[in-house]
Amino acid sequence: MSQQPAENKMGTMPVKRLVLTMSLPMMISMLVQALYNVVDSYFVAKLSEDALTAVGMAFPFQNLMIAVSVGTGVGINALLSRSLGAKDQDSVDRAAENGVLLGLLSALVFTVAALVFAEPFFLLQNATPEIARDGAAYLRICGGLSVGIFMEITFERLLQATGRTFYSMITQGVGALINIIMDPVLIFGLGPFPHMGVAGAAAATVLGQIVAAILALVFNITSNPDINPRLKGFRPNGHIIRQIYSVGVPTIVLNSISSIMTFGMNLILVGFSSTAVAVFNVYFKLQSFVFMPIFGLNNGLVPIVSYNFGARKKARLVGAVRFGVVLAVCIMLAGLAVIQLFAAPILGLFEASDAMLRIGVPALRTISLCFVFAGFNVICTSAFQALGHGVLSMVISIVRQLVVLLPAAFLLSLTGVLDAVWWAFPIAEVAAVVLSALFLLRTYRQVVAPLDSAD
Known about the structure:
The protein is mostly helical.
């Protein structure tokens, strides 16, 4: 009886209202997440430019952690929601049990990697001894306590998959709020707390993640009766794990590719100046304000599409994706307008020098042109993931970031004009739009069209 309300909501609520109900809490929480990412850099920038560089150079490793945790969570979400739609309670429970195990094992791997390879990771990027020292201290904390982010995301995905995105919003919001409050306290040593510098930003981050993970676990135990995992007699289920990773691995690869792209872009840009590298890393902080709401929309759409795919409700599935595209494009257009109009004041938040403003303003205005196309691409990604075709999302991301963006940026750099390099981003996004549209048409014909059209 407890399972019925969530099924009715995702299976019968008017589609537009359902998408907003499921997505708005996630969009709000993701905006808060974006805020505390920017707050980290805002306070670290006040220490020194080297400190800001150290945090920026940690991005590829951190992004890899996020990629694995989010990718695994997407796989859990898709399988669990699809099983709910098909009324397969055993698969629901097994997905939750094995998903938590995968999160713990992933956290263990990254903990060891961070503790052993933190400093070599920075030296590999030709960091100065000071930057390598600060960066390694930052990474040992963020990676050494990665259990926080892995468990936070895993438990939140269990809430999202059963339609309880409000609880997920609370956990993410609380974690982000703790991070925002503790950032200046631990970085600068306010009150009784020690002055930790760059390491303080890492400590504030993991503290927020661990608290959010505990809160999400409590919500699952007390307020998520749709899932009934059992610890007694639990054994890893190879079939369930393969199903999770059939969607999760392409998503992991998809999100990991940006680490490779960032590393490659840094190598290209450092040929112009270190300021160009700084501008590029600041862009990644700023663009999260635009992309995070879209990712929240993505998180809300995946269980809706998965559920209605499992329930064979074609009209609802198509309606959800179509409405998601409209919302995503509108959000992206708003983000484009803000950056075009306020690029200089936004860069000023990061103590930008005159040289950084001269490089950064045209860079942000050019790169942000890709927003026009990115909304459609992200929603296509969520549709492919929810329908069990996450590999298509991986192919699109590889083509956009590795096959088109990096080669285009390198070729444009040969002109000797830095402003030309930034055009690689909109060029790559246009290529991704074409590929997304082709894949979406093929997926509709092969997977969606055969479903019953009746609601």
